[in-house]
Structures are given as C-alpha cells and as structure tokens.
C-alpha cells in the first residue's frame, strides 16, 4: 500500500514534487510509502488503510485535496475517539473549532456516534470571517456555513453545533465532562481560553489532540500550551503529523 499526495505546505510545488519523485525512485521497497501533509515516510505498515471502516468514513468526508492529504492526522483523531469509547471513558466529545464539520463527520461515522446515547458531540466555530477578526479566513467561511454544518449532522441528534467565539461561547454551551477533545483554532489565546474552561472537565483517561501543536507556523500555540500544561503536570507528545497528544 502506498499513499502519494502532492499536498505540501511551504514548498515551491513543482521543484519539490520532482525532488520527492526522485527520492521515491531510490527506495528499495516500493511498498509502504506515504507522501503528503509535510510527511514523507517509507517502509511503513500504514495500517489505517487496512481499516475498512476508517477508509470508508474518510472517503465519505473528503471534498478537497487537503482533506485527502491529512489522512494520517484524521487517523490520529479517529483512533483517539475510538479508544475513549472502547475503554468506556465517561464524557462528551468536543471540537474547537469544526469549520465545515468534516473531521467531526468522519469521527462520528467511524465511531457510530449516533448510537452513543449517553454522549453529545459539541462542535464550535465562528463559521464566518469579517476583515479585522483575529482568526484566519477559510475558503468556505460564509453566512450560510453554520446552517450547512447543522444540516450535515441533521441525522445525528446527539451532535450539537454552536456558533460563537471560543472561549466566550463555552460559558453558555459546554459539556460538564469530556472524554475526547480536539482543539484546532489556529490561535494561541483562544486555545488557552478553551483549555482554561474545559481541561479540568476532561475525564481521567480522556484524550486531547492539539491540531497545530507541532507546526512551526503555529509555534505561538506550542509556546503558550507547553507551560500551561506543564503547570498542571502534563506534557504534550509531538506527533510526526504535527499534532500534539495529551492523555489526561
Ligand atoms: C483550521 S479550521 C478548523 C478545521 C477543523 N477542525 C477540521 O478539522 O475540519 C480553524 C477554524 O477555527 C475557527 N476559529 C478561529 N478562532 C475561533 C474562535 N475564537 N472561536 C471559534 N472559532 C474560531 C475558524 O473560524 C476556522 O473555521
């Protein structure tokens, strides 16, 4: 099994892809190669591609080349969500922030979340962008996106989509107990704000994934999160995907 995506960030695309191709041509075993999302690995099992349910959920949510390329990150999240359910860790699921809801859809499909009668999946986002707002604009930010994301989960009554600014909105709508939390705000003060409200509510054995933790372009988040978590006795595992992983 190989996975070859040409989606890389911060490169001169044409020359970089030619260079990668030349590198791949010199690998003895032409199996187990992964390229994309700033990862080039070879000689790997890539076992998540053998997980048919994961592949089906991933294929079902992919709308763009980037969503396809971040499959290893998505596997990390799917693994975390599945693990807390399998181990019976009590609490709800949280994503700050969900943008189009693609990642949450994959996780919900993969874990059959609609059958998790005692859990709610809390999704937050601003969904819109106006000049002057501190968050990055994304291609599909619009007045309609909130409604579109609500519709995406119309058949899952235990998924709750909330429009508003994190952390302020968490004082109005938030779970009391959390089993799995994905923070992906691309904004250090907002991420620390989310942790301030929610980290104490994460159950023992719960899992926190910080999407941007290992990415140099978002280093401000790591610099804010490391001391905040260390002060509470936690240290982040930087994954090759660029995500940060914390067990409560
Ligand atoms: C990279 S996107 C999230 C992608 C999403 N986690 C996924 O996997 O598809 C970052 C999102 O954070 C949202 N955002 C940034 N700052 C925010 C804040 N303070 N409160 C709520 N949402 C925020 C943006 O609107 C944007 O949609």
Residues in helices, as a percent range: 25-40%
Average pLDDT rating: 96
CATH architecture of the largest domain: 3-Layer(aba) Sandwich
Low-confidence stretches: none
Major sheet characteristics = 7 strands, mixed
What structural class do the secondary elements suggest?
A: alpha/beta
By DSSP, the count of extended strands is 10
Beta content comes to 15-25%
CATH class descriptor of the largest domain:
Alpha Beta
First-to-last CA distance: 34 Å
Task: Sum this structure up briefly.
The protein is an alpha/beta fold and 248 residues long. The chain is built from eight helices and ten strands.
Please give a handful of descriptors for the protein shown.
Rossmann fold; 18% strand; 248 residues; alpha/beta; binds S-adenosylmethionine; three-stranded mixed β-sheet; 8 helices
Structure description:
The strands form 2 sheets. Strands 6-5-4-7-8-10-9 form a 7-stranded mixed β-sheet, with helices on both faces. It folds into 2 domains: 3-41, no CATH class; 51-247, Vaccinia Virus protein VP39 (Rossmann fold, 3-Layer(aba) Sandwich), CATH 3.40.50.150. Helix 2 runs antiparallel to helix 5. The protein has helices at residues 13-25, 52-61, 65-69, 71-86, 102-110, 145-152, 188-198, 219-230, and strands at residues 3-4, 34-36, 39-41, 92-96, 121-125, 159-163, 178-183, 202-210, 237-238, 244-247. The chain has 248 residues and is α/β, with parallel strands linked by helices. It is built from 8 helices and 10 strands. S-adenosylmethionine (SAM) binds next to helix 5 and strand 5.
């Amino acid at each position: 099994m190989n996975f070859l995506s040409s989606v890389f960030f911060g490169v001169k695309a044409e020359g970089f892809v030619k260079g990668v191709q030349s590198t791949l041509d010199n690998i003895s075993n032409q199996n187990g190669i992964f390229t994309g999302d700033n990862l080039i690995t070879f000689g790997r099992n890539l076992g998540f591609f053998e997980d048919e349910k994961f592949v089906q959920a991933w294929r079902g949510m992919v709308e763009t080349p980037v969503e396809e390329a971040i499959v290893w990150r998505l596997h990390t999240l799917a693994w975390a969500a599945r693990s807390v359910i399998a181990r019976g860790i009590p609490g709800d699921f949280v994503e700050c922030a969900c943008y189009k809801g693609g990642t949450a859809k994959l996780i919900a499909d993969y874990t059959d979340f609609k059958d998790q009668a005692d859990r709610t999946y809390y999704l937050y986002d601003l969904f819109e962008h106006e000049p002057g707002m501190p968050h990055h604009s994304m291609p599909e930010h619009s007045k309609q996106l909130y409604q579109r994301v609500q519709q995406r989960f119309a058949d899952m009554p235990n998924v709750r989509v909330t429009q508003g600014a994190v952390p302020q909105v968490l004082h109005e709508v938030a779970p009391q107990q959390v089993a799995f939390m994905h923070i992906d705000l691309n904004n250090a003060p907002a991420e620390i704000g989310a942790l301030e409200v929610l980290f104490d509510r994460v159950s023992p054995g719960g899992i926190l994934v910080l999407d941007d933790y290992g990415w140099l372009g978002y280093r401000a988040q790591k610099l804010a999160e490391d001391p905040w978590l260390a002060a509470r006795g936690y240290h982040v595992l930087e994954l090759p995907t660029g995500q940060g992983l914390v067990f409560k």
